[in-house]
Specification:
By secondary structure, this protein is mainly α. About 55% of the residues lie in helices and about 10% in strands. It is built from 13 helices and three strands; from the N terminus they run ααβααααββααααααα. The protein has helices at about 5, 10-20, 35-40, 40-55, 70, 90-105, 140-160, 160-180, 190, 195-205, 220-240, 250, 255-270, and strands at about 30-35, 115-125, 125-135. It has a three-stranded antiparallel β-sheet. The longest helix has 19 residues, at about 140-160. The radius of gyration is 25 Å and the shape is elongated.
Length: about 280
């Protein structure tokens, strides 16, 4: 049995209690919120808000909901909203959030509510588990990142006349900092392809020295270039600057849009940094 399955329960008896209360047939999967997330204050706030919304909406029906798991799973309450046929809190939350957003878009839901889930499947070889983090309400950071992605898509597809101006701003920003190392960047797509200047730029902005043993200063193969770019992306992610997925091969292949998005992440944080 996967040890992660055991670790989600705070007490040994909790596992026996779970298996006693939840029958998982062979071939069936069941997703549960881990106990570590069950006490999340944001999750509790969201559940209380949704319960209050349901009770307010269905007041004339003389319906009172006290528990999302116990009162909604049989579909009797949700007959007036939408039926839920399984006792699944994750699905219940997703559905209620969607319904509430549709019918009352101004409802002030707490953003970035997330839960750790464990999916359990009963296979012929025993219980198989997988862990994940699932957002119940909108992830504002991802939405902002998506907005930036959309802005660059718009720039390349509909405003090519402004592209040169944006490149000029980014090049000025880059040279302002790598110029201290005696470097000068003229072409975004080609000069960042091997990852070297990107790494040196990150080091300058973040204020640390990059150990030469951790990257290739003069890469002579695609593998070494990919290594450099991946190191740079890891540094950006660790610093909280990269909140969208990037294919390192796109940078190595000189994809202008991808490279500009990466540079914009640095520019948006450090544009006011003094020389």
């Amino acid at each position: 049995m996967d040890p992660d399955f055991l670790n989600v329960f705070t007490q040994p008896a909790a596992l026996d209690q779970f298996l006693a209360e939840n029958v998982i047939a062979q071939g069936e999967k069941k997703k549960l919120i881990k106990p570590t997330s069950s006490n999340n204050p944001k999750l509790e706030e969201l559940k209380l808000l949704l319960i209050d919304w349901i009770n307010t909406t269905l007041r004339e029906e003389h319906i009172v909901v006290k528990s999302l798991e116990e009162d909604l799973y049989d579909g009797l309450v949700l007959h007036h909203l939408l039926a839920i046929l399984t006792k699944d809190l994750v699905s219940t939350l997703h559905l209620l959030v969607a319904i509430a957003k549709h019918f009352e878009p101004n409802l002030a839901m707490p953003p970035n509510v997330q839960v750790e889930t464990i999916t359990i499947e009963n296979t012929s070889r025993g219980l198989k588990t997988s862990n994940a983090v699932e957002y119940i309400t909108e992830n504002k950071e991802n939405l902002e990142a998506q907005s930036e992605d959309d802005a660059f898509d718009e720039l390349f597809s509909r405003a090519p006349d402004k592209l040169d101006a944006v490149k000029k701003v980014l090049l000025q920003f880059v040279n302002q900092h790598v110029g201290k190392l005696g470097l000068n960047v003229k072409d975004i797509s080609s000069q960042f392809a091997d990852g070297v200047i990107l790494l040196l730029l990150i080091g300058q902005l973040e204020g640390y020295f990059l150990n030469l043993r951790h990257f290739f200063l003069t890469p002579d193969s695609t593998v070494e270039m990919l290594h450099n770019v991946n190191v740079a992306l890891d540094l950006l992610a660790d610093g909280g600057l990269l909140n969208f997925s990037v294919n390192s091969e796109d940078i190595v292949n000189g994809d202008m849009k991808t490279t500009m998005r990466i540079l914009y992440c640095l520019y948006s944080k450090y544009k006011s940094k003094e020389t």
